[in-house]
User: What shape does this take?
Amino acid sequence: MRAPYRLFRTVLAGALLAGAAVVSAGCAAEDEPTLVVLGPWTDGEEKPFRKTLAKIGERTGRHYVYKGTRSLRETLVAQLRTDAPPDVAILNGPGELAEYALNGDARPLEGDVEDKAVAPWAPSFPVTTTKGTETHAYWVPIRVDLKSIVWSRAGEADAGPEDAVWCLGMASGATSGWPGTDWIEDLLLQRQGHAVYEQFATGQLPWDKRPVKRAWQDWAALLATDEPANGVDSLTTHFENLGAGRYGLLKAKDCTREHQGSFIGRHYGDDVRPAPTADFVEGLPRGRNVFEVSGDMAAVFKPSDAAWELLLELTSPRTQADWVEAAGPGERPYFPSGTSGTAGTTGGKAPTGASADVLRMLDGADQICVDASDAMPSTLRGAFQRAVLEFLEKPQDTVALDGLLAQLEAERLLQREPDAFVLDDLCDAPPG
Assistant: This one.
C-alpha cells in the first residue's frame, strides 16, 4: 500500500503546496514522539491506565499509544519475530520476562530507572552477552496485587468449614488453570513457610515428593468436603465471570468463599471482605503472616530516552495518584513502594473497606513472595496450569495425582539442564 500512497501524494503535490500553511499546523501534533505500550488490560479495564498515560503525556509532551490484549505472550512473541516490538511491554510473569532478558529482547534498566526495581517483584539476575556476564534488573513493578487471601461476605467469614462452599472458576483462555496454581502455591507457602516456597519457585524442590505433594493433598482434602466444587463445572467457569453480566463468583448462590487476589475486589462492595487464607483452611499453621503477591511489570523492548523516561513516570508518586483518581472505587490499584502512602487512596484520603484490609495485610506481612508459577519458565508454568485442570476432574484419585506430579517433575528436570531458573530472591519483607 505504501507505493500507491506515495504516487498519490506526488500527483497532488501542487494542491498540497497551495495549502502548506494549513497542513503544517496539523502536522505539528503528528510529529510528537509516539511510544507504543503493550499491556494486559482490555474490555474497559484499561480505561484508567489510558487516562493515566494521557496525564503523563501532558507532562512530557510525548504521545503514548496503549495496545491491550488477552493474548499477551503470543502477541509479543509475534512482534519480536517480525522485529517490531513495542517500546514498552507490561507483563505479569517474571519468568517470562527473564526469558526475554536472556534472549536480549528486554533491555537492562539504566540509570535512575534501576532504582525502581522494587523487591521481590523485580530481582536482579545475571545475563551473559558478548560483553561478558552482567547482573542487572530488567523490569519495574508498576502495579501489584496481594494473594493468599479469601473473600467472603459479612457473617459468612465465621461459618465453620462444614458450612463453607468454595467458589471455583478455572477458565481463563490460554492460561486456564492459573487460579488453581494459586491455591497450590498458597497452601505450600502457608504450611511450609517462605524459605521452602522460594525453593519451589526457583526449581529446587521435586514435584513428586513432599512438601510439594502435600500441597496438592491439602487441596484435595479441602475439595472433598465441598461437593459442589468437585467435578468439571469449575473447568468451564470463568475465574471472574458467571455470565449474564454477573462478575465475581461470590454472586453465585451456591458458593460462599473465594480464594482470589486483591484485584477481584473490583467486582464487590464493602460487604465482601478479604482475610488471610490461614484463617479459613483447617490444619494450616497460624501466625506465619506470609503472603503471595503478583505484579504488573514494565520492561523496555525498544530502548530510547523516551522509553526510560516513561518507566520513571510510571513508578512516580504523581502517576500513581493520577491512576488512583482515574480508577473507580473498586478498581483502585495497589503499588509496591510505600503501600501505606498513595496505594489504594484517592485525593489523599485514607482507604476504607476491602482496600484498607488489603493494605493492612500487605504492610504488616513478615514476608511477601512473588507468585511461584509466574516466576517459573513459561513451559513449566503452562504444564502446571494444565495439571490443575486434569487434577480437578478427579481430585480424590491418588494414582492420577502421582501421574500428574511425575509429569511435572520431568518438566522441572528438563528446565534444570539449561539452568532456566535464573530468578532467586523471590521472597522479601514488604517495602516501605
Summary: Confidence is low (pLDDT under 50) at residues 1-30, 340-347. The two ends are 54 Å apart (CA to CA).
